[in-house]
Amino acid sequence: MPYHYRIPLLALGMISLLLGLLAGLLRLGFEIPSPQSALPGLHGPLMIGGFLGTVIGLERAVALGRLWGYTAPLLSGTGTLVMLATGGEREAAVLITLASLVILAVFAVQISRHFTSYMAVMAAGAAAWLAGNLLWLAGGVVDEFVLWWAAFLTLTIAGERLELSRLLGHSTKALALFCAAAAVFMAGVILQFAHPGAGAKVAGAGMILLALWLFRHDIAMITIRQSGLTRYIAVCLLIGYFWLGAGGALALTAAEWLPGPWYDATLHCVFLGFVFSMIFGHAPVIFPAIIGKPMAYSPWFYLHLALLNISLAVRVAGDMAGGGALTAHGGAVNAAAILLFLANTVAGIVRGARAARS
After folding, report:
1. Contact criterion met (CB below 8 Å) for 76 and 106
2. Which residues constitute the domain of residue 75?
3. Residue 6 — very low, low, confident or very high, per pLDDT cuts 50/70/90?
4. Domain-located, residue 36
């Protein structure tokens, strides 16, 4: 698909992100005009299905190189428009579930062409997203299936890092340890549906094991010694691994798996600390591949990275204290950090385009 046809699909993902941030602020108690009264309850679906599902679907469609692969980001992005227009969560769930099915089909085609361990891990993540979406579509409440969504993102990212770190020539033992960590994590996700508390603890242990493996074996431990964009990416990755481990530790030590401050801290360690640190690090590579325009690196990128992590630490501290103003203010600065990331990304693309013309 030509680059200019991908931009509307990417725009759907950005709309989802902005609406998801607004929904999150409304959930934290901020009085902000909302285009949809049901928006606060759609924070999770907008961020995971609307934004991340669309961006990951677009990335995988580009990698596949087949037109039908683009139906995944189209479906998930359209799901966002449905949520915005009607507040209809079920109708959006149908579209986003279909999007996850298409992404799973994309991985099936890629694996049929050439089987690799990292592709199998990412396919397992896509299957986890489909399973979580089916539970959502069946009327389940978020705490019953949110770990399936976490598995989608965690395994997708871990699989991509396994792919990029293969240049190090991992031993059979190292690969076996990775698979064991992923298996523990998925065992907990599956168990959590029947036994929420026990399953969350096992999943938390799996997150810790994956974080430790990534710290030990990811190529970021080598590239951190370089400079410029390469070092920035490595810093993002290593910070993300810390937050994955922190989320795992909170899940492992949680008294129960129910919505509340501890639950909020656990999920935002994973979805904000881990996932968005990965997004910040990979954006200078992924965005040019999607839109076909270069993106210039700037040391200013460290500003949105620092702001996100400091504000997340404040938010988690607030949750540990029982919630309240500290959690809300930390959450507000979380949103500001992501908006600053978008501004810095656009500025980087503009600088890259100017440099290319000159």
Report:
1. no
2. 1-111
3. confident
4. yes
Residue 150: inside a domain: no
CB burial string 193-232: b at 16+ within 10 A, e below: eeebeebbbbbbbbbbbbbbbbbebbebbebbeeeebeeb
204 in Cβ contact with 250 (< 8 Å): yes
pLDDT at residue 186 is higher than 70: yes
The whole-angstrom separation of Cα 331 and Cα 51 is: 18
3-state SS record for 23-88:
HHHHHCCCCCCCCCCCHHHHHHHHHHHHHHHHHHHHHHHHHHCCHHHHHHHHHHHHHHHHHHHHCC
Q: End-to-end distance of the chain based on CA atoms, in angstroms?
A: 27
For position 137, what pLDDT does the model report? 92
Whether 39 is covered by a domain: the verdict is yes
Total domain count, the chain:
1
* Ordered alpha helix ranges (H), the chain: 3-27, 43-44, 53-64, 71-86, 89-113, 117-137, 142-164, 172-194, 196-217, 220-223, 228-253, 261-268, 275-291, 301-320, 325-357
pTM score, whole prediction: 0.93
